[in-house]
Design brief:
It is a single chain. By secondary structure, the protein is of the alpha/beta class. Helices cover about 40% and strands about 15% of the residues. Helix 3 crosses helix 11, helix 7 runs parallel beside helix 8 and helix 9 packs antiparallel against helix 12.
């Protein structure tokens, strides 16, 4: 993947002139100077409680939260995304990681049958800026919107205000947007996924994380192309989902980028549920595809330890 330079980055107009250089620094750090995003999602300890970190098929190392930071430190990622408190506990020991603070979260205890989902903001941006001022390598913030929830207007308003404030302070923003709630019949409907991508653009996000669409005809990657077009200058990345074998995951990622037009990935369980060594090798394989245009065979060789990947 050819590197991009500072003058090739399209800086949004809501980035204040005095924060322009900071925004450029953060954008280039997050995308490893490529314009593509490799997001290591570590926000599930609230979203899914402990189910993603301990149990059948999950390496025992994942029971300890520091496992996430060891992977981020030894592997190759663009950003590690987690809640402010999680990052605050470990960032001093892992200062080189690029951090994205996930500003809202909810557990999965209350089902949509009981109430439509709403994920309120956990802290204000000033708390994040104070951490950055104190030396934590925070390059961006993130926020989840449940499109179709009866509370969507509240989440969209919170996200819109957050994006304006974050950009004014030179931070990049990633939105997680998932159609979900009693009004939604098919959460992975291609038209809804494309709609979510367009909402992220209109709110001003730099990147949007969506679920891969479930296509009635053709492949998921082919259906994703419409969402990639709808997102415009807001880069679209796909959620990784439940853990699958490495070849399946890497093949899906390659198709999402080269057929579906995605500009990266946002992967959590498929990485951190493995042993440290295996997880580190998978981050390198994922980054080889995402950031360096490697093919699936090359990425598998990296994952299998037959070759290394240095960005």
């Amino acid at each position: 993947m050819p590197r991009i330079t500072r003058d090739q980055v399209r800086v949004p107009a809501d980035v204040m002139p005095e924060s322009r250089e900071v925004y450029l620094d953060n954008y280039l750090k997050a995308t490893r100077n490529t314009g593509r995003l490799m997001l290591f999602a570590c926000d599930q300890k609230i979203e899914h409680l402990n189910d993603d970190f301990y149990g059948d098929g999950i390496d025992f190392a994942d029971a300890e939260p520091e496992h996430l930071f060891k992977i981020g430190d030894q592997g190759i990622c663009g950003i590690l995304a987690g809640q402010r408190g999680l990052i605050a506990h470990y960032a001093a020991d892992y200062p080189e990681i690029n951090y994205l603070v996930k500003m809202n979260s909810k557990t999965n205890i209350i089902s949509t049958k009981q109430d439509d989902p709403y994920s309120p903001q956990l802290c204000d941006l000033d708390a994040v800026l104070a951490m950055r001022e104190a030396g934590t390598n925070i390059v961006g913030v993130g926020y989840t919107i449940y499109l179709g929830s009866e509370y969507e207007s509240t989440m969209m308003a919170e996200a819109g205000e957050l994006i304006a404030q974050a950009h004014a302070n030179g931070l990049i923003v990633v939105l997680w947007i998932y159609p979900r709630g009693k009004a939604i019949e098919a959460e992975k409907d291609p038209a809804l996924i494309a709609g979510a991508a367009g909402v992220a653009l209109c709110l001003g996000a730099d990147f949007v994380k969506v679920n891969p669409p479930k296509a009635a005809e053709g492949t998921s990657a082919e259906a994703l192309k419409i969402a990639s077009l709808a997102s415009g200058r807001c880069g679209l990345v796909c959620a990784g989902g439940s853990t699958v074998d490495a070849q399946t995951f890497l093949s899906q990622l390659y198709e999402q980028i080269h057929v579906g037009g995605a500009c990266g990935n946002a992967t959590g369980r498929n990485i951190h549920q493995r042993s440290l060594d295996e997880a580190v090798r998978l981050t390198k394989a994922i980054s080889a595809i995402t950031l360096a245009d490697a093919d699936v065979a090359e990425a598998l060789a990296i994952f299998n330890g037959e070759r290394d990947f240095v960005l």
